[in-house]
Amino acid sequence: MLEKLGYISVLSQVIMCSEGGFMQYKDHEGNTYLYMKDMCEHWNIEPETYSRRVKVYGWSVEQALTAPVKPNGGIRCRDHKGRFFRTETKMCRYWQIERKTFKYRMKHGWTLEQALTTPAGMKPSESLSHILDLG
After folding, report:
1. Which of 12, 64, 85, 110 could cross-link 91 (Cys pair, CB 3.0–4.6 Å)?
2. Rounded distance, CA 86 to CA 73, Å?
3. Mean pLDDT, the chain, integer
4. What pTM did the predictor assign?
């Protein structure tokens, strides 16, 4: 029946209530919620993170709700030019640098600008963007 309504069967926590036919979300402990956002709020996780874990990664409801979120999950951050980003991951995507590369560079004393603008495999002194900024 859920497939006919356009819901993916992988969302096994979605149940139909016999009275009134409205949908509810059920967590791994058996608690029911009228909205997914309420269930996610109870477990302190962003609905987008929960949905991605279940739909894309195929995680169980329990795993999706209880697994720790990566550091800086959803915490706003700012780049060296003052632009705000919702997460470090989004900032790194904007600057076309892998997040793990960015984290390594910051841990090893690179400036924020160097970490974001130096192409992968190069040292800050070799970066063309830094040479152009010296002029």
Report:
1. 85
2. 9
3. 79
4. 0.44
